Amino acid sequence: MNGYAVVDVEATGRSPWRHRVVEVAVVQLDAALRTEREFATLLDPAGPVGPTHVHRIAQEDVVGAPRFRQIAPRLLELMAGRVLVGHHVTCDRVFLEREFARIGVALPTVPALCTMRLARRLLPQAGGFGLSACVEAAGLGWFPAHTALGDAHATVELLRHCLRAGRLPEEPVPAAAAVPWPRMAPARSTASRGPVRLLRRWAPLGPWPAGVEGPRPLVGAAGYE
Could you tell me which of 129, 216, 217, 173 has the C-alpha nearest to residue 3? Predict the structure, then answer.
């Protein structure tokens, strides 16, 4: 039996039809919400990166980053047979659907869990239901907001908090495992024909004082996992 795929994307704008994914992260959890593996990379959106003041990705950060089609086979492997989880998961899913559709791949309909919807039921004291407000209401501490992997990690902790606060539905896990998924042959780097080079952000440790934003996350290279 598989488990969950916690996803988060940062995009060049709000429209999945007009804008592109510029960073993606997936954290795999087993059925008991234990972390199995994670994946994250910046992406070359083949155009402007969009609202740098929000996601803190500058145009120079995506130089040398892979295109979506190069990491698409790995994303399919990470999500296949798992419940899709996200904070406002519908938004992340639609962006991923559109990116896969651009390369001729249709994502199947799979069970999903939305931590925003869970928080509305289990964290009524939250002042709002964005990820930062929910994390604060749950007492989970600081996280590097608007980095795909930082948001995915925060969503994982929020999901675990919701499990402690109330039962999660059990039916989606076996149902997700039964859904057939498309497969793609592993991609190679267009420059070297070797493994795809990822560009992964990580944030300096916080927390930062109230009202002070920490440094823009650093960018480093990693191999295709």
Answer: 173
